[in-house]
Structure formats: C-alpha cells, structure tokens
Write a structure and sequence with these properties.
The protein is an alpha+beta fold. Helices cover 55% and strands 16% of the residues. The strands form three sheets. It has a three-stranded antiparallel beta sheet with strand order 1-5-2.
C-alpha cells in the first residue's frame, strides 16, 4: 500500500486546489487533508489543524518539485510577485530558510536568482535544506534545569523515566523531503538514553528493596 506523506500546506483552499490539479496533470496521486475542527463549549468551533495539506507518495517528491518549477518557468513569474522586489541576498535567504517559505516561493526565488545571473543547482538546494534541518534539530535540546529535574525523577524509578527517556531518543519527525528523521538533537537523544538507563536501574533497585 502506497504511503502518502505531507508535501505542502496552505491556508487557503484555492492554493491547495491549484497544486493538486498541477500534480494530477503530471501523473502524481494526491491526498488532500482538510482543516479539522471540533466544538468547544467555551469558544465554539475551534480548528485542530488550520491547513490544507497536500500529501503525495515519498518517491514522487522530486517529480512534484520539477512540475512546480516547470509550471513557474512556462507561465512566468508575475511582475507584481512580491519576491521580484527582493535583492539577491534576500532571495538566497529564502533558499537558506526553506521551512519559512512555500515550495512555490523557494522555486520562484531560484528562478529569479537565475534571472539575476545567480545559478543555484538542485544539489546546492538540497545541501542548504539539509544544513537548515540539521540546525533546527541541533537547537532542540533539553535545558540543564529540566534535565536535572528529570534525573531526580528517574531515581524514583518505575516506568515513567524509562518510557520518557526512550520517547526522547526515538521521537521522529518528517522533514521537507518526506523522510523520518530524529526530532531531538543528538545530545538530547543521548540524555534520553541516560534517563531510561537510570530508570531501569532505579526500578530494579526499588523492586529489590521493597521485596
């Protein structure tokens, strides 16, 4: 069974519909996840998910990106497109921080840079995306006070520190390439293993004492 992975998200349905149609035209199967809402007795209807999410098979990501780039090149970037007012450095910043921009904006920035005489290869793009992902992951750490508190709790034993520590170590997220990667930094994941290890030893110790 084909697994569909989040490729792009939009606040407005018409934007999601446009990409969905474009991908269909290029032979790519699409699943559209619409915003979900629930009824809250205090605030009324409230959305759990604000976005329209386009999902496609992981192996079709590169094909989808080429389809977007071809579409922008063929139709041209409008004269009033906000990115046209940006400098080379500002356009490069879009490529360096892809998580803050849509895929259309990222590819549009690449095309506009080419018009300004700056060629950015797909290899360079992927390298910048990887560096950004690694930087974001590195920043997901456990503060020293929180870690100290978790160690104290771990010495109390039972299953909380074991489960919590393993969750920190094993928790994954889906990156822009659709791949599962660790959510926490390497340092935090190591701390998670230490917490789990302390939990195992303390649980065994408390069991021995109480027996």
């Amino acid at each position: 069974m084909t697994e569909f992975v989040g490729f792009e998200k939009f606040l407005f349905q018409e934007d999601a519909d446009y990409l969905q149609q474009l991908l269909h035209q290029n032979g790519i199967e699409v699943e559209l996840e619409t915003p979900k809402s629930h009824f809250d007795a205090i605030v009324g209807h409230s959305r759990d998910n604000e976005y329209f999410i386009i999902k496609i098979p992981l192996q079709k990501f590169d094909t989808a990106l080429r389809a977007i780039e071809k579409d922008l090149e063929e139709k041209g970037i409008p004269a009033d497109y906000p990115l046209r007012e940006m400098s080379r450095q500002e356009l490069m910043d879009i490529l360096a921080y892809p998580d803050k921009w849509s895929r259309f904006d990222s590819i549009g920035a690449k095309i506009l840079l080419a018009e300004k005489g700056v060629e950015v290869s797909d290899t360079e793009l992927k390298k910048m995306e990887l560096e950004r992902e690694q930087k974001i992951t590195t920043e997901r750490t456990i503060s020293n006070p929180a870690y100290f508190l978790l160690i104290i709790i771990s010495f109390l034993g039972w299953f909380f520190p074991i489960i919590g520590g393993l969750m920190i170590y094993c928790l994954k997220q889906t990156d822009r390439e659709g791949k599962k990667v660790p959510f926490f930094s390497e340092q935090a994941r190591t701390q998670g293993l230490i917490l789990a290890g302390i939990g195992v030893l303390s649980t065994a110790g408390w069991y021995w004492l109480l027996s």
